[in-house]
Amino acid sequence: MPAKRKLKLVITLIGLLVLGGGWLIVSAQNHPSSQPAQQTQAKSKPKYRTLTLDELHHDPTLTYCSIIYYTVKHGKIQRWQEVSKVSLGWQIEQYPTNDGFKVLVWPDMNIKKEAKQLQPNWFALTKNDSVTYHSFIIHSFRDDMTATTNLKTIVDQINHDHAAMKVRQMTPKMLIVKHKNSAN
After folding, report:
1. In 3D, which of 84, 61, 60 has the Cα closest to residue 71?
2. What is the per-residue DSSP string for the chain?
3. Where are the domains positioned within the chain?
4. What tens digit of pLDDT does each residue of 112-127 get?
5. Which pairing describes strands 90-97 and 174-178: parallel, antiparallel, or unpaired?
6. Long-range contacts of 176-181 (CB under 8 A, 24+ apart)
7. Quick check: 120 and 102 in contact, CB under 8 A?
8. What is the pLDDT of residues 51-78, one digit of tens each?
9. Which residues contact 101 (CB under 8 A, 6 or more apart)?
10. Residue of 106, 103, 122 lying closest to 114 (CA atoms)
11. Has residue 94 got a pLDDT over 50?
């Protein structure tokens, strides 16, 4: 075989290999089944981010939203259902106490003073993370109904419900009014 003919054959083969390799690379990049399974799975389902006690200790709004979520979904005091409408949000009045805060919960972040006629639901949050829910019994001469839990139980329940994202989404619907005087 003459040298010229061998050279043409080699150049032709190299050209075909380059074109074929280029075609394989382009088609592999555009074909979804060639993507690793982890990448497609990550795009379709975001990873669940749990709620932590540390987050609550650094974000009072998130803490209050968690406390409200817990009692509305898992609490035993029926009157707390008055604050269950997330679309209205909440106006929170926070009063410092010797051991934490007394927190009044109004069922509308835009509630006006004249609408605050009936004693609201409220909770006490202590420095050691104890939460006591209180609810005034309408047309009764008895003491408030109460229920007690703690922030760890609340966080565990929210994570069990896979509701951390839901609770985080509640925070823009909360207005906190801080009072300086103790209201025990």
Report:
1. 84
2. --HHHHHHHHHHHHHHHHHHHHHHHHHHHH-GGGS-HHHHHHHHSPPP----HHHHHH-HHHHHHHHHHHHHHH-S-GGGGGG--TTT-EEEEEEEETTEEEEEEES-TT--GGG--SPPEEEEEETTSEEEEEE--TT--SPPEEEEEEHHHHHHHHHHTT-HHHHHHHGGGEEEEE--S---
3. 3-44, 53-178
4. 999 998 889 999 999 9
5. parallel
6. 176/60, 176/61, 176/64, 176/92, 176/94, 177/91, 177/92, 177/93, 177/94, 178/94, 179/93, 179/94, 179/95, 179/96, 180/96, 181/95
7. no
8. 999 999 999 999 999 999 999 999 999 9
9. 94, 95, 124, 125
10. 106
11. yes
Residue 2 in tokens: 């003459």
Angle at 95 between CA 176 and CA 87, to 5 degrees: 30
Residue 26 is which amino acid?
Answer: V
What is 53-178's CATH number, 1.10.20, 3.30.1460, 3.30.1360, 3.40.50?
3.30.1460
What residues have CB less than 8 Å from 64, skipping those under 6 apart? 90, 92, 103, 105, 174, 176
Query: Helices 60-74 and 151-160: crossing angle, nearest 10°?
Result: 70
The pTM (predicted TM-score) of the whole model is 0.72
